[in-house]
Amino acid sequence: MEVKRGGSGRGEGRVRFAAFGSLSTVVVEGKGKGEKQREQGGDMVGAFGEESEKRRGLLEVDAEGTSARPVWIEVADKVRREYGFGGGAQPAKFLQVKVLKDTRPPVQKAVDSFLSRFFPLGYPNSVAEGYLVYSQYRAIQHFASAVLHVLSTQSLLFAAGLRPTPAQTTIVSWVLKDGMQHVGKFMCSRMGARMDSEPKRWRIFADFMYDVGAGLEVISPLCPHQFLPVAGMANLAKGMALVSARATRLPVYSSFAKEGNLSDLYAKGEAISTLSNVLGLGVGIHLASNFASTIQGKLIWAPILSAIHLYSVQQEMRAAPINTLNSQRTAMLVADFVKTGNVSSPAELRYRERLILPVGLEKDAGNVRVGAPLQSGVAKPSVMAELKEKFKGEPFLLHFGEQATDMVLHQKATGEDAVRGWLLATHVSRLCKGRKFQDADVYGKVLEKAYDETERSLPNFVSGLREHGWHSHLFLEGSGVRAVW
After folding, report:
1. What is the pLDDT of residue 78?
2. Which of 16, 310, 320, 380 is surrounded by the fewest CB atoms within 10 Å?
């Protein structure tokens, strides 16, 4: 499409626009002294080949400069079509369509085809930071898991007195997965709220339980007389792993979806998993036929595969920028804000989260502990009455102890309410400067001053959370302990 600007003579020029799907180009031509300037947005030549360069002549006007030919190129399902009206001095009455030849190098075609099948549309701009690392370790994780699955299933058959061919081991799990596996699913399903709060930790737990189940299957030939108990416990562990893995999949994918492309992310993630599983099954069958055909070989290869599997899922989860508020992430956010005045993004906190070891109290965030039962800090009716009076109208209660500050949230408290209570507790702790919390200190001038500082800093903190994509309207403490007073 062409637009004239300027008058005749030296300053006359034309601006040409062409749309190429997600790419675009702007060409600016100046006739003065035969000069020609060109500005491009996107790598049009690399993506569309020399044919696009040749077709640019259709954008020119006729000799008198009175008839323009609007032309655009659309890309749909890997086919590029050129559209234009009329030709030369002919009136623009009919739309002309021409399919352009794909002149890209074979390597670029293969790369583009791979990206379109295994990465979301618009990658990398359509996903959050860390998605490539997450996908790489996800592929390694599923590959190692598939190989281990073949070896463990073959061991089960040996323990049962069968001598299958390696290829038969890939379908036996459809029979063995019933029974105790359903019990494992039921046991783990009641932990759904904790999985929302700590999806990374529970995803690692899922793969650990899967490896426990696979390990029991691998050693089952060593105790054939105990085949049913060992196989049952293995399926119990795998049932727990299945529920945990499925329940934590959505929060992880949601953290990468920048443009509402959750379904696309899920579909491409499953494509990566399927390809890795197929390759892993092939390698597993080869190992089961050669290097790991004996129980001694399996006892060597199973720990190696399990280590690769668990390391990969750990790195995979570290790369995921989870953007929901829980106790661990809120404590780090508050500590960073109090020290620097800035709010950290999910990508900045992801490698600082504890995924395996227990999470301790954050001293710089007031040593706040969320989720403790109300009766743990309220020993007398007078204490409860005093708390309700001091925090009247608040959706939280703060009980200041010597080691920690217990925050009890009201049933209707939002994420911003939890953040406000956390900031208040942090300011109280900072103003007390390490002294033991005494009633005169906490409920007197210190609390009043802490309230003033909280009211001043809260708007900047909340706006920073929203700016960086945190879901500030929710607080997922995991334990589900709420109170009504």
Report:
1. 65
2. 380
